[in-house]
Amino acid sequence: MLDRSSSGVRPTRLAPGVLVVAVVGLVAVMAVSTLLGAANLGWTRVVAEFWAQVSGGVSPLSSTEAAIVWEVRLPRVVLAGLVGAALAMAGAAFQGVFRNPLADPYLLGAAAGAGMAATIVVVAAPAVVGWVVGPLPLAAFAGSIGGVTLTWLLGRSAGGGTAVLLLAGVAVASFLTAIQTLVQQLNTDTIRQVYSWMLGGLNTTGWREVLVTLPYIVLAAAVLCLCARLLDVLGVGDDEAASLGVHPGRVRIVVLLAASLATAAAVAVSGLIGFVGIVVPHVVRLLAGASYRVVVPLSMLGGGMFLIVADHIARTAFAPAELPIGVITAFTGAPFFLLVLRTNRGQLR
């Protein structure tokens, strides 16, 4: 909550105890998801494997079983945590900038740009070997950033402002989606692969995706955490924020760029996973308060927990078959979205 007084804005600080609980919760979720999986290795044997690596003892796992733990489960859990953190903190940032409780990381053409670029790569790119990252995630990253850039340029040319930027995002997303649909219809043999990517997934067989995505998400997280207090200040209005020495336009640009970078990094390795950026920030507000000094860091941790749990359900519920993770988040997020819409209907008019 913001304390608006004559002396200025005093946002709520993140209590150390709350932060410790959130970190412990994230570590616990990561541990459970690593110990249990579709392959029945026995959680006690997996614990013994970790202890063997630390102490130099003998592992009870075979080389194949150890590879499942170190090259499949653990990287996937870490990647799910990073993607969830990126989408949740981006959602919180967009909601702060636009003062709209339904703002989502896929605003401003990020998802449409990524989907269009990924579709073109699936259709046109030859098989490439030896790349640090495959052409599809690279194209998704570039398309996501390109969509946001096009939206920003269009919104700026139309006079700027939050409402204009949102309308520009709708226009750009519609245009890019039309291109994607056209490419799909001209190449119907690739539709299944494209839709599989669009439904979201965290398929990884190593640490490559984690290492490539990590720097972008860390950079975006640092910027958004540093800007959290400024988002609180913007909540009192641009005129009052300016009187306190804050430049609202600059803050919005910086936050939008950081949130878009986090979204692009997540989309590049996971496809399109919806509702994380809506569900998690709202749960954080309900439990811990509305100050962005609280919402942004806790959304990062909560987003990581949420997506790790969702991915665990996706890969174990119907094992050995695997559900798209976007299906799991939609089952949770769609009803929550309707609840938020109903709760905030007066604010959205």
TrEMBL record:
UniProt key word Transmembrane helix: yes
Membrane topology annotation: Multi-pass membrane protein
UniProt keyword annotation of Transport present: yes
GO biological process: siderophore-iron import into cell
GO cellular component: plasma membrane
Example of a GO MF term: transmembrane transporter activity
Lineage top rank: taxon: Bacteria
Record field: transmembrane: 14-38, 77-94, 106-129, 136-155, 161-183, 210-231, 251-280, 292-310, 322-341
Keywords of this entry: Cell membrane, Membrane, Transmembrane, Transmembrane helix, Transport
InterPro entries tied to this protein: ABC_BtuC-like, ABC_transptr_permease_BtuC
CDD domains tied to this protein: TM_ABC_iron-siderophores_like
SUPFAM superfamilies the record matches: ABC transporter involved in vitamin B12 uptake, BtuC
Pfam families: FecCD
Annotated Gene3D superfamilies: ABC transporter involved in vitamin B12 uptake, BtuC (1.10.3470.10)
Compartment list: Cell membrane
Entry's family note: Belongs to the binding-protein-dependent transport system permease family. FecCD subfamily.
Protein name in UniProt: ABC transporter permease
